[in-house]
## 1
Amino acid sequence: MRAIVPFDARDPKTRLSVLFDADERRAFADVMLDHVVEALHAAGFEPTVLATAPVDRSDATVRVDDRSLSAAVNSVLDDWERPCAIVMADLGILTPNALDRFRATSGDVVVAPGRGGGTNALLVREPDVRVDYHGVSCRDHRAAARAVGASTTTVDSMRLATDIDEPSDLVEVLLHGSGRVHEWLRTHGVTLRADGGRVTVERS
Amino acid sequence: MRAIVPFDARDPKTRLSVLFDADERRAFADVMLDHVVEALHAAGFEPTVLATAPVDRSDATVRVDDRSLSAAVNSVLDDWERPCAIVMADLGILTPNALDRFRATSGDVVVAPGRGGGTNALLVREPDVRVDYHGVSCRDHRAAARAVGASTTTVDSMRLATDIDEPSDLVEVLLHGSGRVHEWLRTHGVTLRADGGRVTVERS
């Protein structure tokens, strides 16, 4: 199955600015994209990176579109056969197993919600469904599917639900991640900090 | 399988004080406990509420122990046969399906991590394992299991990973919850607020 992986190639992960400068944020975004593309291949998907600016990749097709996220994804949906998937590029603890469960979930539209109302992955088996990532997108995608008579299901996965936007999200990578994303954080001095309440991270 | 459900019967959910007064927080904690006990019954578990003070429940055995969480749970583990489970009382979007997957996961110790390093549910098939909820407990529980030669596995569930501590956690209940916890929030005027970035809640 083909999968769109939207990627901000210009100024990614701005909410991590408290920990990383612009070059580091771009490097970290690249490492997460590597990880997501690798997991997609391992789970039998054919990824296309949908980037806001040209990127050089040997492991995936690249399509450049500098419009808004929703417009760019919908343009791909206009061109592609169903079923296909849209998977965010910042799923730092994604595994092939989680993607296997995602693909095995029945329904015309399968939503993998992100924490806080986002849509971290969407599997579209219905031709008429389009995306809108603005606002409470997991709710809006369910409503959009219903509006064209499509059934929706939700996949229950912490790994799919964890997109890496804020410093607190890095806790999940340090605890549940492996491979290159985890290694990148370690190399850049990011460690867990536990002093009561929820665990946070700090950089040395 | 028997399941321990630890419950703070005195001053629960203090991090929700910005939204709810003490009586409301106690009522909301009760509603979440109702929900968790109901889901456990539906999934074939036999719940025992392990409360810090006497509580009146017709749907579960009650055991009162006002010691620390870890000491109280370990005292039950001293008394009970294996396998048994420990499931937190504030899993506001828990479903019987998520519990079914939890129980079906192999391993001497099955960890359902909470967001931010906690342990939201633990399935213990090994007699020598004890709990310690202080600090980064999901990591510590894996290490404790390894220390006694027990295998550990992790269950990948957003529903098990979502404990309700902070206002932002209520977003998940409003989006993915159903039944009485969702209804309680609606009745008390809690709604989603989306104005860019992650979605939050507000109370009217």
## 2
Amino acid sequence: MKCDVIITITLKEGMLNPEAEAIQRAIAHLGYTTDRLATADQFRFTLDAEDKKQAEEIARSICERLLANPVIHTYTIEVI
Amino acid sequence: MKCDVIITITLKEGMLNPEAEAIQRAIAHLGYTTDRLATADQFRFTLDAEDKKQAEEIARSICERLLANPVIHTYTIEVI
């Protein structure tokens, strides 16, 4: 079956994120006050799998072997 | 009130996305077949606003003036 997968990769709590800091400063220049700004990378794709469980296992393997760096990243997997 | 906002920015349909193509090829090298891989940038932050409606308006302004390029991007706003 075809499964739609959404992988979201974020920096672990406590990791420095200069991009987020820069964006928060830029938003402040627009006149808005934001707090705890975080960035995330999202990857969406369709996958051939036997069932949702297998699709999630494949997505987990893709995260651990390719998309996420386990030292600095956490990830969530959503199979639709 | 404090509102949590999630902004997701994607390339418009039909836009070339070499990053997505490279990732899809890399996943194929791992032995998995994926289809229609798309990437998105997500920004999450807390915002001070009178209500959810105002938070969404501020988020829309941030998208249009800073985060998204209307020529190539579409965006979704989620206020929690």
